[in-house]
Amino acid sequence: MRPGRGGGYGCARLLLLLSLLGTAPLANAKSDWNMASLMRALASSTHATVAFEETRVLAYLEVALTSHGVLSMTPDGQLIKETVAPHQERLIVESDKVRSLRAGEDEVVLQLSDVPVLRGFVEAFRATLQGDLATLSRYYQLELQGSEEGWRLQLRPQQASLGAVIRMIDVAGAHSRVTSYTVTEQSGDVTTMALTVP
Amino acid sequence: MSRRAAVAVITLWLLSLTLALMTIIQAPPLQSDLTQFLPAGNTSQQRLLLDEVSGGGASRLLIAAIEGGTASQRAAASRALASALRTGDLFEQVLNGQQQVSAEERDLLFAYRYLLSRPGDYSVAGLQAALSARLAELASPLSLIDKSALPADPTAVVRSLLQRWQPVSAPSRSAGVWVNQEITLALLLLQTRAQAFELDRQQQTIEVIQQTFSRLPEAANLTLLLSGGPLFGVESRRTISGETRNLTLLASLGVVVLLWWRFRSLPVLLVAVLPLASGVVIGTAAVMWLFGGMHGITLAFGITLIGIAVDYPIHFFSHLQQTVHRSASLRHLWSTLLLGVLTTMLGFSSLIFSGFTGLSQLGLFSVAGLAASALVTRFLLPLLVVEIGAPLRPVLTMPLFLSRLRLLPLLTLLLSGGYLLVVQGQIWETELSKLSPVAESAKRQYETLRSQLGVEDFGRMLLIRGDSEQQVLQRSEQLERLLHPAVADGLLHHVELPTHYLPSEHEQRHRQSLLPDSETLRANLQQALTTLPFKPGLFAPFLAQVEESRQLPPLNRARLADTAMGMRLGSLLMQRDAAWFGIARLTGVTDEDALRGLAASNAQWLSYLNVHQESSQLVVDYLHEALYYFAIAVVVIVLLLLAVMRSLLLVWRVFMPVAAAVALAAALQVLLGERLSLFHVAALLLVLGIGLDYALFVVRTPRRSADFTTTMHSLLICNGSTLLVFGLLAQSEVPVLHAIGLTVTLGAFAVLLFSFMMVHDDPLPRTGA
Q: What sign does the CA torsion over B13, B14, B19, B22 have?
């Protein structure tokens, strides 16, 4: 059961309404650019495939872990994160499932609804790339800063279960393109993923 | 009869009825589930098998399917229903696809992880391999989920334990709950705490599910379908008791109308009830006294007793109507009736010795009931009715031409018997489930839902025997080693063993002894970490908990009580009488012979069971047993007839119509596509009993005797009442009742015709009866 769910819907609708009216309280800068127009822009984005560089700074480790690969969004809404090095991994997010394929290992399939933390986490990526404001605001409190040419969307978890693991997710971008994600966990672990058009 | 004798008869009758009624009042209520009607099992292994068939995990499973609305409405309703049902104590398990390892269970699992899982590799190389794997995992976003367990569990023991417990074939899911393939239904699997035979509790459980569902706000435009053993049990009971009541009522009405039509006398009607009622009361009391209870189906069989017992007063009244030679006629009646009752009782007594509880009860009920009815007719009725109106004109002309067909019964016997012998391999019904009154469509729906849920057919297992819990657990571990190559070779897909949830104490201590001491582990870990970037001191919890695990008292059943693991264990490890049993549930068996071979080479503690096959075999065994006693009864009956009639020819004339009718009724059933069950055997015994009465009356009443017309008419009335009662019974939807009804209707009609073929003019020899 998700006690916060009903509230999340209501909140999403309210936000959507406010942003459609052009009075989104946290959107600033030019009056013709706001959360709604950002989401519209993201939804219409044509960059289906981008390259990523990831850096993980983990409390457990003395060194940072880096990896790179390709992040893509298929027309039917599948999010694919393909890590090329140092370890090959293909991670596929489709509606309610995450599949992970690693070289030399069995496929791992997880149901997002079984792992609420993962569900919220995945939406931070999928919903921003799709410009899906309703879903985003179901899981996060949103704060938009900057301008159309250089914006920053801060996501703070709504739900306790997600909040217990994730402190904040910072999405940065320009126009209709996301340029980086920065995930800060409660443990202090920070993961930065920079996206570039190949 | 003198006045004193009359008083004695009435006193005795009232006294026995009072005693019988007292017995009935003090006895527990009627049993109404089919399982109690099934054989009791002679060995503890058989009892366990029968428990598996009738009371095991599968018989307590209910499948709930939620239909209508949208997928997310169904999923929400599934979650709400599951969480509501989990709060009560009616269910052992409520599964709907949501993950639900409780926090306490996770803690327990974590604490005992090194005793529950197979020995790990704690060498430098082993630790290095595990830690490298963890490091690679940390690069994946999925590490978010269980990263926190890393410092205490770097070898990921808990993860592999949880994986091993995953259902072998999980159903598909949508929106986090189980669904059917078409995603039109949300599915839940409920295992009731109430046993299969506790029908009242099962009914209550089902009502709670339905009420809980209807109160859910999520369920507004959804419907709930329930399916499964407990529901079938409850519905069977409703059908059986409803049918029994209605048919008994109808049959009684019919018989009353028939009697009125024949005798037109209110006293006759009232008095005619007495032998019957006394028979039912005495029969019931006898069963309750000897068996400590009685099954509803046995009482339903009371209706069949009407078929025979009503004949006695009919014969009496018919002979009473005779104006000439009345006393001689009555004397003749009594001696014939005595022989008829004795032979019929002999036939039914063969049921008493069958190991099939329900049939033993039927046998005893019939024997006691028939004796009581006959005694009441013989001694009480003549006191109550001394005069009766003149007989009606003969209703039917005796079809005398039948006596020209005297060889027809023999021919019928040969043909029917020959046919039965030719097809004998396929005529027996060996499936217990076919005796259940549940509609085929309901069973099919259940099978479909069950396969979509991936609920295993609990059919194949290896049964481990031992003198103690620990011995069984150790043997379970031995079996796991034995089965390892079979699983690797693909002879079976998966085996679930008791020791997956609770290893033996011996094994747990062994695993403890294999854990390295803290100095060694610290040194190995340090060396393994030299090339890896983990922070120093990160794995301190691991070092501490391995050391703790070395000192833990072994996990036991009590500690697992009330956990999902404990419940799983409870269905795999059990005590029956003095012996302990462990069940290894097998899935995807492709080579049964190999498993049989494995069991055979460890025969003193291991056996292979194909529950379905074994239960069929059990039914066949009981069937053979019943047929064996039936044969003995027939021999004794023939000997008794010979002793009394002292004429082979007469015995031939009595026996031939009966044998022919029994064989014909059985053959016709087979021709009609029915398979003969134990209940058909019981019905054939009824045909035998009824037939013996008919044939005896015909053979002992030569055509020239004064009684002839009276006797033949009374037989016609008797036959009419029998056809009425059993024809009604054949309309029943309950297979058991239908089988008895149809068999007796066919048999009774045939036996009357065949008996009429034996009408003769030979004078009777003087007999002792």
A: positive
Instruction: Select from A1, A60, A118 the Cβ nearest to the Cβ of B535.
Output: A60
Q: Is the Cβ of A81 closer than 8 Å to some Cβ of chain B?
A: yes
Tell me: cis bond preceding A86? Omega within 30 of 0 counts: yes
Question: What is the mean pLDDT of each successive set of 10 residues along chain B, which is 769 residues long?
Answer: 85 92 81 57 58 60 88 88 87 76 80 90 90 88 85 88 68 77 86 77 91 88 87 79 80 84 83 89 91 77 71 87 77 89 87 77 90 93 78 59 83 92 79 66 78 67 90 93 85 85 92 90 90 89 91 89 76 82 84 86 86 72 80 90 90 93 92 81 85 90 82 86 87 79 92 90 59
Closest CB to B533 among A62, A118, A121: A62
- Nearest Cα neighbor of B734 from B115, B244, B280, B275 is B244
Beta bridge partners of A69: A52, A83
Q: What are the beta bridge partners of residue B678?
A: none
Q: In sequence order, which residues have a C-beta less than 8 Å from that of residue A150 and are 6 or more positions away?
A: A172, A174
Q: Which residue shows structure tokens 């997600």?
A: A162
Q: Are strands B494-496 and B185-192 parallel, antiparallel or unpaired?
A: unpaired
CB pairs under 8 A between A and B: 74
In A, which residues are within 8 Å of B85 by CB distance? none
Closest-CA residue in chain B for A125? B141
Q: Residues near B454 by Cβ (< 8 Å), separated by ≥ 6?
A: B167, B168, B169, B170, B171
- Output the CA angle B384-B390-B396, nearest 5 degrees: 115
Rounded to whole angstroms, the Cα distance separating A182 from A184 reads 6
Q: Nearest Cα to A124, choosing from A139, A109, A112, A110?
A: A139
Query: pTM of the predicted model, to two decimals?
Result: 0.65
What is the distance between the alpha carbons of residues B470 and B506, in angstroms, rounded to a whole number?
8
Written as six digits, the tokens of B686 are 């009824």
- Give the Cα separation of A87 and B139 in Å (integer): 8
Rounded distance between C-alpha atoms, residue B290 and residue B20, angstroms? 12
Residues 124..153 of A with a Cβ closer than 8 Å to B: which? none
CB-closest option in A62, A87, A117 to B145: A117
**CA–CA separation, B601 and B593 (whole Å):** 12
**B206 to each of B193, B221, B237, B436, B555, how far by Cα in Å?**
12, 20, 14, 19, 36
Cβ-based neighbour number of residue B220 at 10 Å: 11
SS3 for B626-674, per residue? HHHHHHHHHHHHHHHHHHHHCCHHHHHHHHHHHHHHHHHHHHHHHHCCC
Amino acid making up residue B279: G
Three-point CA angle B386, B14, B260, nearest 5° = 40
Q: Using a CB-CB distance cutoff of 8 angstroms, which residues of chain B are in contact with residue A59?
A: 535
β strands within B467-545, DSSP E: 494-496
DSSP-assigned letters across all residues of B162-181: HHHTS-SSPPPEETTEEB-T
Count of C-beta atoms within a 10 Å radius of residue B548: 11
ipTM: 0.80
In 3D, which of B89, B75, B53 has the Cα closest to residue B188?
B75
For residue A159, the distance in angstroms to the closest alpha carbon of chain B comes to 16
Cβ <8 Å between A81 and B141: yes
Specify whether the CB–CB gap between A35 and A151 falls below 8 A. no
CA atoms within 13 Å, Cβ hemisphere of B65: 21
Which among A63, A100, A191 has CB closest to B142? A100
For the record, the structure tokens of B177 come out as 């709950």
Give A22→chain B minimum CA distance, Å. 32
| Contact indicator for B202, B196 with CB cutoff of 8 Å | yes
Query: What distances in angstroms separate CA B76 from CA B72, B154, B219, B375, B454, one per listed residue?
Result: 6, 37, 9, 67, 22
